[in-house]
Amino acid sequence: MDISIVDTSIKCKINKEEMEELEETTLIFVSVVTTLLGVMAWYQEKYFVKEPTRNWELERRNFLNRLYRGTEIDCMEQLRVSKGAFFKLCRILEEKWQW
C-alpha cells in the first residue's frame, strides 16, 4: 500500500509539471502570435499605400485637352457632339458658373 501512495503522488507531481509546462508553452505561443499580429498591423498602417494611385485631376485635364485640341472625330466619339457645340456648352457653363 505504501508503494501505491508514493506512486500516485509521483504521477500527480508529473501531471502538475506537464500541465505547467503546457500552460507555459501556450502562453509563449500566444505571446509570439500577438506580437506578430501587432508588427503586421503596424507595418500595414505605416507602409502600405493608402492613397489612390491615380491622379484624377491630371487625367481630367488630359481628357479635356484632348477634347479642346483634338480632332472633330475625337469630340464626336467622346461626347456625341461637334466641337462647335462643345465650345458653346463650355461658354454657357463659364457664364453661368463664372469660372
Automatic annotation (TrEMBL):
Domain of life of the source: Eukaryota
Protein name as annotated: Uncharacterized protein
